[in-house]
# Entry
Amino acid sequence: MIYPVAVWFENNVYSAVVPDLPGVITEADNLDALRAQIMDAALGWMACERTDGRSIPAPSPRETLTDSAYDGCQWLLVDIRTPENA
# Structure
């Protein structure tokens, strides 16, 4: 599933938040590393949710994510695949 990810570049660090996966927040020194960090954080979060018996939210359309918390971000679309949604 392709999730929108909010990305900021400040103080020479990329930070990312996956709005549909609460608590999936990460950072890295470059975009390639950031993508890997996003995947790692998202897959770990999803595994915990499943273990606790909760379902994984579907991705929201990017244009619906209008909260002011995302002001100034760039959007990245990341295909987060697990065995269940591959």
